[in-house]
């Protein structure tokens, strides 16, 4: 049996999912896709998990689809057919997902970065939508990437396939933060700690809210949003948070330090 290419570990309410296929730059091979999807399912369904961190071994976060497996396969047999499920798992996870990049991402790897809630990379990380340069289209990843990027940047980078750095990735909305390599883990830990302070149900509902289309005017949305807000104020989780605030203590959902 082949060694696993994705490792799963839970410590203190944080599930860390690690891509470990450095021999092919963590390309999205059939085995890696399968194990990554299984790990995401596990993290999403575990009540003990509050935050998910997606990271990697080796110098590259993810090089995109495994082109060796794609070569010679018909449209119905391409591995990209399984990729929407992974992007959907990341995008709709009720638990916040943080991407930790100690190196570059390309193509489908950027699609995964865009599907997470928070993305942090080292200054040296580079990015490229390299699809057009091998005669394919960044179609599937466009569904997670385009909501993040400014329109001008998306047109430029999708059409040229040019490489861009982490500073540019922050400027156009792909990354939240770019830091020196020595500060990567502390920056990720800062976000994880902040996310774990939120109520689990409130975080899940807020993620859903962020993904919904905006009403044409605030007036069209007030009734539904007021119902959602009042329901959470009166909920068990909301009442625990309000009581904890009054008693100057942490709510019962905050993991022990």
UniProtKB/TrEMBL annotation:
Pfam families: ECH_1. InterPro entries: ClpP/crotonase-like_dom_sf (IPR029045), Enoyl-CoA_hydra/iso (IPR001753), Enoyl-CoA_hydra_C (IPR014748), Enoyl-CoA_Hydratase/Isomerase (IPR051683). CDD domains: crotonase-like (cd06558). GO terms for molecular function: catalytic activity. SUPFAM superfamilies: ClpP/crotonase (SSF52096). Coiled coil: none annotated. Belongs to the enoyl-CoA hydratase/isomerase family. This is Enoyl-CoA hydratase.
């Amino acid at each position: 049996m082949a060694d696993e290419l994705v490792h799963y570990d839970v410590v203190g309410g944080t599930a860390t999912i690690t891509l470990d296929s450095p021999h092919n730059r963590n390309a999205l091979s059939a085995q890696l896709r399968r194990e990554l999807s299984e790990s995401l399912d596990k993290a999403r369904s575990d009540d003990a998990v509050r935050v998910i961190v997606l990271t990697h071994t080796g110098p590259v976060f993810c090089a995109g689809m495994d082109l060796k497996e794609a070569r010679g396969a018909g449209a119905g047999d391409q591995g990209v057919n399984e990729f929407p499920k992974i992007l959907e798992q990341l995008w709709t996870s009720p638990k916040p997902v943080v991407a930790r990049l100690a190196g570059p991402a390309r193509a489908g790897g950027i699609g995964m970065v865009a599907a997470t809630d928070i993305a942090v990379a080292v200054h040296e990380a580079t990015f490229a939508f390299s699809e057009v340069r091998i005669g394919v289209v960044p179609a599937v990843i466009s569904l997670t990437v385009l909501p993040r990027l400014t329109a001008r940047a998306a047109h430029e980078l999708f059409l040229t396939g040019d490489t861009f750095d982490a500073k540019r990735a922050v400027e156009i909305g792909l990354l939240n933060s770019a830091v020196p390599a020595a500060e990567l883990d502390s920056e990720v830990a800062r976000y994880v700690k902040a996310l774990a302070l939120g109520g689990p149900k409130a975080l899940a509902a807020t993620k859903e809210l962020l993904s919904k289309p905006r009403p044409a005017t605030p007036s069209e949305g007030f009734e539904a949003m007021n119902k959602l807000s009042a329901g959470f104020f009166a909920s068990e989780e909301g009442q625990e948070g309000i009581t904890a605030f009054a008693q100057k203590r942490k709510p019962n959902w905050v993991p022990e330090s």
